[in-house]
Amino acid sequence: WLFAKKGPVEESPVKLIDFGLSVRKQEGKPLTTPVGTPFYVAPEVLSKNYDLSSDMWSVGVIVYCLLGGRPPFWGSDAQILKQVKQGAWSFRGPVWEHVSEDAKDFIRKLMEMDPKVRLTAEQAIEDPWVKHCAPNASSEHFGKHIVESLRSFGAQSQFQKAALNVIAEQLEESQVHELKEVFLEIDTNNNGTLALSEIRGALEKIGAKVEDLPEIVHSMDMDDKGSVNYTEFIAACIDRRALYATG
After folding, report:
1. What is d(CA 217, CA 141) in angstroms, rounded to the nearest whole number?
2. How many structural domains compose the chain?
3. Last residue of a domain, one of 79, 107, 134
4. Model confidence, pTM
5. Most exposed among 92, 95, 161, 175, judged by the fewest C-beta atoms under 10 Å?
6. CATH of the domain at 92
7. Residue at which a domain ends, from 100, 115, 134
């Protein structure tokens, strides 16, 4: 995505870009070239027999990432592709406790294994969640999810924290993309580290109050420099259950 012009975000149209792998689909003729990014590719693409409905699977993955803060699949490229082929994904984790059933049902209908049953673009636009719920959705659940992750990290042993920091350094960009965006948003002075005041300010914006935030932030500050760097933030927020399941 790219902003069409410079200036205030709310005044600039958003343009979809990068059509390097796009083709003109001929009516009645399936596509057979397996292309795409592992996280977003549809199962039938891997079978080399697909059509426009494969794009709707990718839309489902994007919605999953936006609402859940992480992709529905996890691991190496080979592990991810295996999960995609099996349709092995779920709404696991505390963040999904705060996501409506309408939203989850929308994702299910987009990430339907059978392309013939999967929502079309026209049907997706008319889905009840898109028309009535999404425009009024709150982002508070995402703040709660981050807080829960931070608290969980604080309860880890020093050895576990150190191990998570090492793991965080090895993760690929695609695995931490959403958390990177959160880090950049919180880092209001753009110095590459998060001060306690910045983290508190970000949580206050979404109405989340954390009494023990100083202790939590201190537990994240592994190098005792008085602030949280990027790796320390990722280590504290990564989905540890998914990480351990694929480790």
Report:
1. 20
2. 2
3. 134
4. 0.57
5. 92
6. 1.10.510.10
7. 134
Q: Identify whether 247 is part of a domain.
A: no
* 3-state SS class at 230: helix
Query: What count of Cα atoms within 13 Å lies in the side-chain half-sphere of residue 136?
Result: 6
Please give the torsion angle defined by the CA atoms of residues 74, 77, 82 and 87, in that order, rounded to the nearest 10 degrees.
Answer: 50
Residues 211 and 97 in one domain: no
Q: Hey, which residues does 50 pair with through a beta bridge?
A: 31
Please check whether residue 19 is in contact with residue 55, taking contact to mean a CB–CB distance below 8 angstroms.
Answer: no
Cβ atoms of 44 and 115 within 8 Å: the answer is yes
Same domain, 125 and 161: no
**Angstrom distance (rounded) from CA 243 to CA 149:** 13
> Which residues span the domain enclosing 219?
139-242
Q: Do 114 and 19 fall within a single domain?
A: yes
Query: Do residues 231 and 171 lie in contact, with contact meaning Cβ atoms separated by under 8 Å?
Result: no
Please give the chain's pLDDT, 247 residues, in tens. Answer: 677 877 776 677 878 777 777 777 888 888 898 888 898 999 999 999 999 999 999 999 989 987 887 889 988 899 999 999 999 999 988 778 878 899 999 999 999 999 999 999 999 999 999 888 766 655 444 566 677 777 777 777 787 788 888 888 888 777 777 788 888 888 888 899 999 999 888 877 766 667 778 888 888 888 888 999 999 998 888 765 455 444 4
